[in-house]
Amino acid sequence: MLVANVLFKSPESRHSLTASEAHLSWFEERVVDNLERIDSHLSSRQFEDLRSDRRSLTRPGTPARPLIAVVDDEPVIAITLAEILGRHGLRAVWFTIPLDALAFFQSCKVDLLLTDVAMPTMDGICLAAEMLKTHPECSVFFFSSQSHEAGIRRRVHLLSPNVHLEAKPLQVNSLIHGIEQLLTKA
């Protein structure tokens, strides 16, 4: 068997990285960046009234930018979606464990939950239902490879009037348009 060893130059050093080392480095950078964003939101939250405006996590003097929580059990999907949203002017934090997202919702208000429906520990519909108990004004954008199934569609639309269900694979234009529609309805 022939194994290709792909090498990448690390910008901060002169040595080469294998493809798996480069991927791990990329992933670690995204995890650290996401944790810093979460900490930033949580630390700014301690000075604010819990009943304040939904867009309260923006700094004074800056235009309000929606905060979106991305939840998918696959880290690459969660990271990629958060980065796409960031490139479109939205603030995003991502989670791979729904219970971690719920803990975040206890301390911070989000404008929109972007979640996969099928996840192993808690599905996205149950996650949204729990989140909507404390933040009923939040919008929810679901994505699923099973979006055509009547049972899923029914469960999604029973949650709140401000939800959207999109089929996988997501198209960036459709994702951004759907999010904009939900945020303007809220």
Automatic annotation (TrEMBL):
A GO BP annotation: phosphorelay signal transduction system
Signal peptide: none
Location of 4-aspartylphosphate modifications: 116
Transmembrane segments: none
Response regulatory domain residues: 67-183
Domain of life (superkingdom): Bacteria
Protein name (Swiss-Prot/TrEMBL): CheY-like chemotaxis protein
Organism of provenance: Granulicella aggregans
UniProt entry keywords in alphabetical sequence: Phosphoprotein
Cross-referenced InterPro entries: Bact_response_regulator (IPR050595), CheY-like_superfamily (IPR011006), Sig_transdc_resp-reg_receiver (IPR001789)
